[in-house]
Amino acid sequence: MLRSTRNRIKSLLYPFYEWRIVKDLDFSQTPEHVGVILDGNRRWAKENPHPNDPKGHQRGADKIKEFLGWCDEAEVKVVTLWLLSTENFKRTPEELDGLLKIIGETVDALCATGKWNIKAVGALDLLPEWLRVKLANLPQVTDGGVEVNVAIGYGGRREIVDAVKSYMTAEFEAGHSMQEAAKKLTAEEISNFLYTAGQPDPELLIRTSGEQRLSGFLLWQSALSEFYFCEAYWPDFRRVDFLRALRAYSQRHRRLGA
Question: Which InterPro entries match (predicted)?
Fold first, then answer.
C-alpha cells in the first residue's frame, strides 16, 4: 500500500520535474548524433515476468518509437540504436530467432510511421536472407525527422576491419598499388568507409541498465563522445531520463581531445 502511494506521488511529480529540466536545458547544445545501447531487457523481464515476452525484448522494442519521438522534440538529427551485437549470435538458435523476428517487426513498425529514415548498419551478411532483403529495401522518407541507424549484427571491431577492407578494395579497383594505398591511408579515409560514413560522429552515447562500458559500440566514432550511463533498464527508460542525459551533456565542457 505504501509503495503504491509512493508511486502515485512520483507519477504526479514527474511532469513538474520534466518541466524544470526542460526549463534549464540549453537546446543550442543538443547533440546532433546520439548513440544508444539498449541494455537491460532480460533483467527487466526477470523482475517483470510476462508469459508472452519472457526475455523482455518486445517491451524494449516498443520503447524505441517513443524514444525517437523524444529525439524529434529535442531536434536530434541522427540516432544510432544498438539492437543486436555480433556476440548475440552465440545465443541459442531459438533465442536468436526470436530476437531477429522482433527486430524485423520493429523495423517494419518504424518504417510504417513515415516519420524517419531507417538505415541498417552492421555485418548484415551474418543475418538470415529474409532479414537481409528487408533491410536492403527500406523506404526513404522525404523531409523526415531523425535519421535512424539500426545497428544489427554490429560489432565495433568488425566495423573497423570492414572499413579497412573496403578502403583497400577501392584502392585496388582504382589501380593503386598496396604501397600507394598504405601511404594514402589516414583516419579520415577510414571514416569514409565506416557504416556511418557521411554522418557526424556521436557527441553523446547513452547506455541503460547501469552498466558502465561501451562493449565495442561505435569504437571508432566514439573517440571524442560524451558518455551517459543510466540505471534504468531500457524498457523502463523514461523521457525524464533522456532529458537528464541531455542536461548532463549540455553542462559538460567538451575538450574534444585537447
Answer: UPP_synth-like (IPR001441), UPP_synth-like_CS (IPR018520), UPP_synth-like_sf (IPR036424)
